[in-house]
Specification:
By secondary structure, this protein is of the alpha/beta class. The chain has five helices and five strands, in the order αααβαββββα. It binds adenosine-5'-diphosphate and magnesium ion. Adenosine-5'-diphosphate (ADP) binds next to helix 3.
């Protein structure tokens, strides 16, 4: 197969991600858990951030028009996730807008079907106020134990 043939052809093509077999089942269990609220704990390097990122990416692709947000407590930590996402998501699938800190997924090439993957940090307690009135399909807190209870409500 030539490079041209192997190139993705549609904007909705599923991005490749394989739950990790280094720690068998943890990521798979997380992704397939049907609960409204899920928690994924474990040691540093256990695949939590990666699973968070990919769960959100997959939901953007699976549910056109949906809105995902990933929170981290500080901007440098958040930037690590943004960098990973930028590396994983090709530009023909979603465009990153630096000012809005979000990817817009061009599902079905129809703007009203675009999914949003937003990144946001909550250094200060009141940073939560920036999200008042926002409707999110899914909210993810990476390293949830670092947030205050009132930020996660
Ligand atoms: N499913 C996976 N496939 C390949 N690499 C993975 C996968 N999950 C995690 N990794 C890699 O393992 C390392 C640690 O994962 P990470 O999600 O950052 O751990 P944690 O957030 O639990 O500390 C990272 O370099 C990440 O890219
Ligand atoms: Mg992490």
């Amino acid at each position: 197969m030539t490079a041209a043939q192997s190139r993705p052809t549609t904007p909705t093509e599923e991005l490749f991600y394989k739950p990790w077999d280094v720690f068998p089942f943890a990521q798979l269990a997380y992704h397939t858990c049907p609960a409204d609220e899920r928690m994924y704990g474990g040691a540093a390097g256990g695949g939590k951030s990666e699973a968070t990122l990919w769960d959100a990416i997959r939901k953007c692709q699976k549910y056109p028009g949906s809105r995902q947000v990933i929170f981290r407590r500080t901007m440098p930590e958040l930037q690590d996730l943004i960098d990973r996402a930028t590396h994983y998501i090709p530009k023909h699938i979603a465009i990153y807008n630096h000012n809005d800190e979000r990817f817009v997924f061009m599902n079905e090439s129809r703007s009203n079907q675009a999914s949003i993957l937003r990144f946001s940090h909550m250094n200060e307690e009141d940073d939560k106020l920036r999200h008042r009135g926002e409707q999110y399909t899914n909210a993810y807190f990476d390293e949830g134990s670092l947030f205050t209870a009132t930020q996660m409500r």
